[in-house]
Specification:
By secondary structure, the protein is mainly α. It has one domain (about 10-125). The protein is built from 6 helices and no strands. It has helices at about 15-20, 30-35, 55-60, 60-75, 90-95, 100-120. The structure holds zinc ion.
Length: about 130
C-alpha cells in the first residue's frame, strides 16, 4: 500500500496543462515512481505499459480509439469543414497555422479530459 501524501494543488486549466506537456512536467505514474511516491509506473488505464505522457495521450490503444471517435464527432458536427488529422507532433505541439485554432482548442480540451479521467482513475464513454 502506498503512503498518502498531501500533494500541492496544481492548476489544471488547459493552458497550464499544455505548458506541463511541452516541458515534460505533466505528472504521470512514471514520474511518481521515479520520485518514490508510487510503487508502480504502469498506466492508470491499461496497467500494461509504463505511463508516460506519450502513452497516456497518444499511444494507448483506447486513447487512439478516443481520438478516432472525436475526429468522427467533430467531422459530423462541422459537416467535414475541418481537417482533423491527428499526428503525435500536432497533438503535442498543436497545429502551426492560425487556421487551426479550433482544432488546437479541441486538442487542448481533449487532452485535459484524458488527463482528468486518468487522475480520477476511471474510464468513460469516450475512454474505455
Ligand atoms: Zn495504458
Amino acid at each position: 500500500m502506498s503512503p498518502s501524501y498531501n500533494f500541492p494543488k496544481y492548476c489544471h486549466c488547459v493552458m497550464c496543462m499544455q505548458f506541463q506537456i511541452l516541458h515534460c512536467t505533466l505528472v504521470t505514474n512514471r514520474k511518481l515512481k521515479l520520485w518514490k511516491i508510487k510503487e508502480s509506473e504502469m498506466c492508470s488505464f491499461c496497467e500494461l505499459e509504463v505511463e508516460s505522457i506519450s502513452h497516456l495521450l497518444f499511444d494507448y490503444l483506447h486513447i487512439k480509439i478516443f481520438w478516432f471517435r472525436l475526429k468522427g464527432w467533430l467531422t459530423m458536427k462541422t459537416n467535414n469543414r475541418i481537417d482533423f488529422n491527428i499526428s503525435k507532433i500536432d497533438l503535442i505541439l498543436g497545429k502551426s497555422d492560425s487556421d487551426n485554432r479550433l482544432i488546437n482548442l479541441a486538442y487542448l480540451v481533449a487532452k485535459q479530459y484524458i488527463y482528468s479521467c486518468r487522475c480520477l482513475y476511471k474510464g468513460s464513454y469516450w475512454i474505455r
